[in-house]
């Protein structure tokens, strides 16, 4: 990475019926235990629980504000735009830099207003940005992670350029000039106590969801020699045989003490760290990763592995800013190592993604491939301990160079997601869904908060039809409509995507601050106002089915649909047989397949579903369950005539793949 990027970027050192308003009884069961969902089989490509965030950097006006001196109204409009982008991409968190350099984006009594707001350090922006930012994020039910830089004082070395009230000017002995910047000296106990107090001011006064640090502890090594703290070591380093061990202990104390302070003040506020991606290399330490890059343990004195093992932090989001197959820092190796590191602990593992690299000029060839970034998240799914990702940074998410972010959204963020549940806390009581009524703008839901527990947010589910509710329906993210921040004793949600001709069941759950989910509310059914569109396409349907000559025809099994069905040998070539249909309107459709089952057929037949958001692959075991309609899933489609479902031959499992019939029903 170019050294000049290290100054600002995190880690660039490296998301019974109601008939038109008539009241109806609840559909049994009245509540659905969420715990029963654990045994459900769900689509790993659409997880219900997944952290999806993006960094919004303020230092040097990287993301927000876009420049200094904007009016309060302009700053606020820009920030709302970033939150709208996060929601558009179905993210559920933003990580916003509010203390970039020993300054503040709130009226702190300890440090001056940030220069990145007005252009002048100490200049009052005319409103409270942090109060505004938290309120706007929560209005969209986005978690707000407050991002602090613990030790950076300035991106220059001149103390006289700091505001006259700046603590570093009042205590010049606290500051160290190094590599063109000013830092608080981490080895001075008074400094450590002060920076914790300055950050806890925001924790105590604002409704933030997490304290977030990136990779800046001791500064990265510069060209002008080592960090000049030898005198401080001589004064405070008793009991440490090396200055390196003493420096690591200084950072360990910062983490341990800050963790204790946060948990004592607001136990629901998480402490998360996004360190440099390599702790140590295996060539240096057998506990390290099979890498050969810079080691944060040795270079910036960040013993991140210890913080995880000691449980001092709630989540860790290493900046694994390299491609799969990088010769000295392979993404695949690092996600393996970090997954093993958090195993046996309560620390959540997220991954910092180098979205800034995708399609950017000057980056490695791998980053010019639109699939690189999405492949990272696909690989992550093979490690259950990886609970989500954070993208650096907001402007790169918006830029969507080479369509890489759109590809991630299509492949991994197709539906909303709940944040992973944290340690501690208790799920609230189930809410009472009091009404579900069709209106001109959709189906309007209203509910009352449950009688016990602390509710922070609600999750809204929609199921097709009017049958009993299966707990597994609530484990399927494809039935999750969205989330709503709790406010007062009631809640409301409008389903603007409800099709007029479809019947639905609605349920709501409540979650606490740490995202523990209640049992589901009673279900309310809303009937359709007209006929429901449904079409069956058989392999003999004129203009509805196409397949190459490589596909045979058989009528051997009597459990077929219609007169015959098509079959083919598996092979490492897609060669799909396609079912086409004319869909009357854009919207959500249930796709079902019919096939004659046989023990000799394929156990993982790939079905390609050409949705409005891209092609999705679903696998069907055609050895069992045949001779009936089997639900493949619920998908969003555009209106028009097109190929909708394909049966592919590309599978490594043995046995014929079969294409017989599909049924597509608008929901």
UniProtKB/TrEMBL annotation:
It comes from the Bacteria. Residues 1-26 form the signal peptide. Pfam families: GHL10 (PF02638), Golvesin_C (PF25275). Residues 535-666 form the Golvesin/Xly CBD-like domain. Keywords: Lipoprotein, Signal. One of its GO terms (biological process) is carbohydrate metabolic process. Residues 51-369 form the Glycosyl hydrolase-like domain. This is Uncharacterized lipoprotein YddW (UPF0748 family).
């Amino acid at each position: 990475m170019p050294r000049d990027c290290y100054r600002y970027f995190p880690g660039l050192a490296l998301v019974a019926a109601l008939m038109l308003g008539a009241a109806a009884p609840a559909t049994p069961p009245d509540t659905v235990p969420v715990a029963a969902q654990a045994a459900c089989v769900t689509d790993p490509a659409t997880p219900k629980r997944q952290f999806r965030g993006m960094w919004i950097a303020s230092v040097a006006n990287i993301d927000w504000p876009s420049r200094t001196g904007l009016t309060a109204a302009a700053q606020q409009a820009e920030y709302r735009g970033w939150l709208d982008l996060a929601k558009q991409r179905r993210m559920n968190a933003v990580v916003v830099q509010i203390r970039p350099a020993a300054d503040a984006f709130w009226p702190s009594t300890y440090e001056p207003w940030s220069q990145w707001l007005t252009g002048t350090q100490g200049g009052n922006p005319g409103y409270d940005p942090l109060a505004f930012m938290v309120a706007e994020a929560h209005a969209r039910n986005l978690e707000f992670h407050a991002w602090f830089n613990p030790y950076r004082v300035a991106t220059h070395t001149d103390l006289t350029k700091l505001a006259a009230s700046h603590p570093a000017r009042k205590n010049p002995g606290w500051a160290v000039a190094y590599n063109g910047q000013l830092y608080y000296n981490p080895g001075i106990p008074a400094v450590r106590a002060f920076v914790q107090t300055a950050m806890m001011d925001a924790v105590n006064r604002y409704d933030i969801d997490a304290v977030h640090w990136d990779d800046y502890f001791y500064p990265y090594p510069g060209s002008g020699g080592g960090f000049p703290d030898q005198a401080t070591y001589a004064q405070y380093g008793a009991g440490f045989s090396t200055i390196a061990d003493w420096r690591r202990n200084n950072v360990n104390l910062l983490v341990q003490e800050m963790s204790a302070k946060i948990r004592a003040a607001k136990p629901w506020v998480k402490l998360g760290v996004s360190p440099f991606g390599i702790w140590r290399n295996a060539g240096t330490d057998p506990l390290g990763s099979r890498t050969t890059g810079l080691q944060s343990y040795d270079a910036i004195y960040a013993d991140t592995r210890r913080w995880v093992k000691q449980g001092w932090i709630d989540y860790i989001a290493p900046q694994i800013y390299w491609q799969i197959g990088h010769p000295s820092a392979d993404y695949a190796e690092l996600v393996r190592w970090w997954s093993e590191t958090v195993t046996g602990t309560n620390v959540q593992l997220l991954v910092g993604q180098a979205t800034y690299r995708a399609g950017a000029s000057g980056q490695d060839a791998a980053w010019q491939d639109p699939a690189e970034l999405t492949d990272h998240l696909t690989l992550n799914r093979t490690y259950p301990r990886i609970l989500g990702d954070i993208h650096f940074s907001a402007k790169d998410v918006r830029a969507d160079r080479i369509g890489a972010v759109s590809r991630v959204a299509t492949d991994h963020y197709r539906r909303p997601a709940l944040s992973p549940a944290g340690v501690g806390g208790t799920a609230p009581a189930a809410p009472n869904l009091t009404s579900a009524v069709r209106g001109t703008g959709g189906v309007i839901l209203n509910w009352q908060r449950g009688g016990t527990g602390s509710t922070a947010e609600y999750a809204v589910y929609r199921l097709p039809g009017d049958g009993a509710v299966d707990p597994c329906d609530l484990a399927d993210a494809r039935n999750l409509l969205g989330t709503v921040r709790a406010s007062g004793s009631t809640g409301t949600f409008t389903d603007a995507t409800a099709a007029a001709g479809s019947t639905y069941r609605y349920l709501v759950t409540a979650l606490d601050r740490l995202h523990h989910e209640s049992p589901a509310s009673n279900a309310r059914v809303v009937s359709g106002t007209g006929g429901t569109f449904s079409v069956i396409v058989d392999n003999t349907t004129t203009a509805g089915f196409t397949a190459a000559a490589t596909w045979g025809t058989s009528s051997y099994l009597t459990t077929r649909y219609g007169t015959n069905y098509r079959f083919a040998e598996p092979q490492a070539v897609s060669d799909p047989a396609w079912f086409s249909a004319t869909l009357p309107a854009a919207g959500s459709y249930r796709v079902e397949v019919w096939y004659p089952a046989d023990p000799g057929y394929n156990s993982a037949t790939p079905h390609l579903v050409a949705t409005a958001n891209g092609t999705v692959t679903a696998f069907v075991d055609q050895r069992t369950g045949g001779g009936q309609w089997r639900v493949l899933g619920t998908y969003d489609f555009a209106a028009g005539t097109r190929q909708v479902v394909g049966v592919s031959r590309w599978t490594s499992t043995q046995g014929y793949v079969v294409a017989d019939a599909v049924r597509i029903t608008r929901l």
